[in-house]
Write a structure and sequence with these properties.
By secondary structure, this protein is α+β, with helices and mostly antiparallel strands. A hairpin with a 4-residue loop joins strand 1 and strand 2. The chain has two helices and eight strands. The strands form two sheets. Strands 3-4-5-7-6 form a five-stranded antiparallel β-sheet, with helices on one face. About 15% of the residues are buried. The longest helix is centred in the N-terminal third of the chain and has 60 residues.
């Protein structure tokens, strides 16, 4: 081994090893922090994705339930062997008009439990053996067609914008009038 001369400087083996150990420790510590950070981010993403999936599933479930309830709500007309399904059908009843044998029809009315006044919706369904147009729905041997002349009920305690008139308007315009109903065999 040679002696270190004056003016020559360098690192001893011990110093080099210490520097390598410190760099290795800093590297390992940095790697561990990086790994934990990504693991936490992945867990948060999975939790967020899982929560979003659960929320989406709950929303879809609520929509499915609402659609099922709407699909189950129907005015059943056993005299004709049909049911008329629409969103607020559970609030509606009917009367069969047999006065005109050439034009049998039913009139739709709000149930007593829904309204004590303004029960007539002013609309109903006619039944014939021939199609009355594109909006006719065929069930068995008959075609069923929505018709009538609804108007505002002046007896609604809330006036033209009262809750009964609002319900009547919703059923007539947004459900039946918008063809959001189905006629099917009972």
């Amino acid at each position: 081994m040679s002696k270190i001369k004056k003016g020559e400087a360098g690192f001893s083996v011990v110093e080099v090893v210490l520097i390598l150990v410190v760099v290795a420790l800093v590297g390992v510590a940095g790697f561990m922090m990086y790994k934990n950070h990504n693991k936490a981010k992945d867990t948060a993403t999975k939790t967020s994705t899982s929560q979003t999936a659960k929320d989406t599933s709950k929303d879809a479930s609520k929509e499915d339930t609402a659609q099922k309830q709407a699909a189950e709500a129907a005015v059943v007309v056993p005299e004709w062997g049909i049911k008329i399904a629409f969103e607020d059908a559970d609030k509606v009843t009917y009367t069969v008009n047999t006065d005109d044998r050439n034009n049998p029809h039913i009139n739709l009315n709000l149930k007593d439990s829904v309204a004590s006044v303004c029960q007539s919706l002013g609309v109903g369904f006619s039944r014939s053996t021939t199609s009355a147009g594109e909006t006719s729905q065929k069930v068995g041997d008959y075609y069923y067609q929505l018709g009538g002349g609804p108007g505002v009920c002046d007896d609604d305690p809330g006036g033209a914008n009262g809750s009964i008139n609002q319900l009547r308007s919703k059923i007539i315009s947004k459900e039946l009038g918008a063809n959001k109903y189905t006629v099917s065999a009972q």
